[in-house]
Amino acid sequence: MPDFDLMRKLVLPSNRRIILLVLDGLGGLPRQSDGKTELEAAHTPNLDRIAQAGITGLSNPIGRGITPGSGPAHLALFGYDPIRYEVGRGVLSALGVGFDLEPDDVAARGNFCTVDERGVITDRRAGRIPSEIGVELSKLLDKIEIEGAETFVRPVKEYRFVLVLRSLGLSDRIPDTDPQQVGLRPLPAVAEVPEAQRTADLVNTWIAKAKAALADWRPANMVTLRGFAQDPALPKFPEIFGLKPAAVAVYPMYRGVARLVGMDVIPVEHPISNEFQTVADNWDVYDFFFVHVKYTDSRGEDGDFEAKQAVIEEVDQALPILLDLEPDVLVVTGDHSTPSQLKSHSWHPVPTLVWAPETVRSDAATAFGETECSRGGLGIFPATELMPIALAHAQRLAKYGA
Amino acid sequence: MPDFDLMRKLVLPSNRRIILLVLDGLGGLPRQSDGKTELEAAHTPNLDRIAQAGITGLSNPIGRGITPGSGPAHLALFGYDPIRYEVGRGVLSALGVGFDLEPDDVAARGNFCTVDERGVITDRRAGRIPSEIGVELSKLLDKIEIEGAETFVRPVKEYRFVLVLRSLGLSDRIPDTDPQQVGLRPLPAVAEVPEAQRTADLVNTWIAKAKAALADWRPANMVTLRGFAQDPALPKFPEIFGLKPAAVAVYPMYRGVARLVGMDVIPVEHPISNEFQTVADNWDVYDFFFVHVKYTDSRGEDGDFEAKQAVIEEVDQALPILLDLEPDVLVVTGDHSTPSQLKSHSWHPVPTLVWAPETVRSDAATAFGETECSRGGLGIFPATELMPIALAHAQRLAKYGA
User: Fold this and answer.
1) Residue A258 and residue A381 in one domain
2) What is the average pLDDT across A14-18?
């Protein structure tokens, strides 16, 4: 990752603008028929044109061979070493449902589970209850009140929910209450450090009330909690990179990570052209735009090659909205690969292009695709290095040394 | 190198199998006549086919420009930073002659040398006595007995031998007794730390007896000792990477390094097809096979281009034995380059291919060779990254973060 102190020292005041366009899960694998990935199969005259004029490469979000989750992958794109700056799972879950965390809040992932008359877990996921039941039960638990803290419960999906405790002086140093196997009772919340004792007590009080509230329900008659976490108080992106950044994203998770690093979040709805238009509408207010396109990843996870290809084509068709703004630097990349053949995130490095008409040293790439990028002028590089590369091409970094 | 704690956290239980096939000293330099290296000149239809289907690159064992010894080069292939995890020279020498070191043993490299009547060194290598004399003199020294420790002497080659001291509570914090130039007396063994005093005393007692035993011999009438070292107690490969690994190697040195990281060693003899058959015979017992082919390096060191080429062709002919096992991942690489033009190890990065039918993003390589690999989809990368790459392609690593 870039040296943040060095960045702080080198950044220059400037009104040159950078767009970081992230196509979630962009990278793919070659299909059997013609050896093309989704990106290579897509008809993308605009992306191809800026790939030809710009410079390309492959980025590794976390490290070679490591498959990233969305949280760490985005931190990497924002320049943060995602191993060093770990965001706890409870916080990521809260961000994922759009919950507005305050600095002292403690968030945890929750599972509805099934226990027998002795209180022993017989199903860790309560028979994978449908999301509608999960929503209803979360509303029930959200009504719980305990002394000494506010509590909030939000549904995630199926048997999963998020619990947030709000009070000053809380601590997240509490191990999971999920024993990770059936045949055991849920564990009580315990404090790993003395400062966490009050929080553990509050959690146990809440668990007792949750158990009572669920007593008459089947199969979801109990809960377990995992990944207790607080806002990691990351160093802030505007202060490190000397930028006024805005996040344009449809999904709560990505808005949440952007907010964690100190970006302003501009509310926006699908479709992609609307996201791009939102950048245009705010062009004079910010000098850095993180624009997030979700559905490349979603269609990859569906295993639908053509549908992922179609999302990429939709991006390409809308791209002139961004190009007409004449950004000084446009970076197009993904946070990770989601090959439709694997139906999941993967470790394969991510096609990346940097377009900067005034300053780029272009390479031999004639189109935007994995194979072209693998021979591109940026090489194969850590995603955390994209920020200094983008700043440099925007001529926003001073010389180091005389 | 990969973060071992991260690896431990991400590894998944699995029965998918990985073969790491190491052709010692594989990399070469282009010959004058047609600009081909040994690997490029070799007729290798099987390697070319899997290079085409897989992904290629060039690996740097230690760092750019650094020529590796065999020990560090193999540690790198196993995922260990060879600078951080240094294995002392005495230990490498003992492993090289197949000596079975115990945890507290102290091993040192020995030289027979010539001293004059004042005890001053006149030849640091005793006129490079032939190996037969070295064997005979080593047998003589192996008979020495001292109080407080067992001692062992094994011949290496010509004027070189290995000394091992065995007793509980020994220390290797002893500088060389070799003064590195003629005209000086051999140095006494001294302790660098108080815990090494007893060991230094034992060594000096042994040296006195060795001097007496050699008194009537010429030119080898004295010894010097270098590289005192103990088993470095490396973190263990099975525990870091969640694998059950076996080493299939003909030479003691490579078996020894494999044993240092906690691999099982399967005894095997030449030829190469026999090594590959040994993998087949043990296919159900292990999920990771390190297979070592020695003679690519030996023929490179001989300076014999065609003979090295022929060893590569022998590997290619036997390769179907491994391919028929349908490994989930097959990595073919070298531990370093040994260009026959240089007749020695070199720093040139090493051609590497990863073949993984289910998960690989193939590149444009159509054959296995240095030039193709230099444009390959893996790029030019540290050899220590091969393990996470191999694990990822075997789908043995969980996602990092949510």
Assistant:
1) yes
2) 96
For residue B365, give the chain A residue with the closest CA.
A371
Q: What is the mean pLDDT of residues B109-138?
A: 95
Q: Do B103 and B216 fall into the same domain?
A: yes
Domain boundary among the residues B210, B229, B248 is at B229
Residues B190 and B174 sit within 8 Å (Cβ to Cβ):
yes
Is there a contact between B352 and B58 (Cβ–Cβ < 8 Å)? yes
User: In this complex, do B363 and A348 lie within 8 Å of one another by their Cβ atoms?
Assistant: no
Task: Report CB contact under 8 Å: A380, B381.
Answer: yes
A311-321: average pLDDT:
98
* pLDDT at residue A98 is higher than 90: no
For A347-397, the pLDDT digits (tens) are: 999 999 999 999 999 999 999 999 999 999 999 999 999 999 999 999 999
CATH code for position A196 = 3.30.70
Q: Are residues A119 and A201 in the same domain?
A: yes
Chain A hits for B397, CB-CB cut-off 8 Å, are 65-67, 347
What pLDDT, on the 0 to 100 scale, is given for residue B402? 74
Query: Is the dihedral angle over the CA atoms A140, A141, A143, A146 positive or is it negative?
Result: positive
- What pLDDT does B96 receive? 85
pLDDT tens, residue by residue, A137-192: 999 999 999 999 999 999 998 899 999 999 999 999 999 999 989 999 999 999 99
Cβ–Cβ of B359/A37 closer than 8 Å?
A: no
* Mean pLDDT score, A203-229: 96
Tokens 């638990």: give the residue: A141
Q: Is residue B177 part of a domain?
A: yes
Give per-residue burial for B9-24: e unless 16+ CB within 10 Å, then b. ebbeebebbbbbbbbb
Question: pTM, whole model, 2 decimals?
Answer: 0.90
Whose structure tokens read 């090295």?
Answer: B308
Indicate whether B145 and B82 sit together in one domain: no
B151 inside domain: yes
Nearest CA-CA partner of A67 in B11, B237, B59: B11
B192 Cβ partners below 8 Å, 6+ apart?
B173, B174, B175
Residue where a domain terminates, one of B229, B261, B281: B229
Q: Which residues of B366-386 are buried (b: 16+ CB within 10 A; e: fewer)?
A: ebbbbbbbeebbbbbbbbbbb
C-alpha closest to that of A203 among A225, A180, A230: A225
> Is residue B401 assigned to a domain?
no
Domain count for chain A: 2
Range of the domain at B168: 91-229
Q: Is pLDDT above 90 for B134? A: yes
- By Cβ distance, the residue of B6, B375, B402 closest to A89 is B402
For residue B193, give both structure tokens: 């730390």
pLDDT in tens, B146-163: 999 999 999 998 999 999
* Cα–Cα distance measured from residue A15 to residue A2, given in angstroms and rounded to the nearest whole number: 22
In a domain, B182, yes or no: yes
CA distance A23 to A35: 21
| B114 and B205 fall within a common domain | yes
Residues of B in contact with A58 (CB under 8 A): 377, 379
Of A86, A96, A374, the CB nearest to B363: A374
Specify whether A68 is located in the same domain as A38: yes
Is B218 found in the same domain as B274? no
Residue written as token pair 């015979």: B281
Residue A131 shares a structural domain with residue A79: no
Beta strand A18-23 with A329-333 is parallel
CB contact at 8 A, B93 and B103: no
Give the CATH number for residue B28: 3.40.720.10
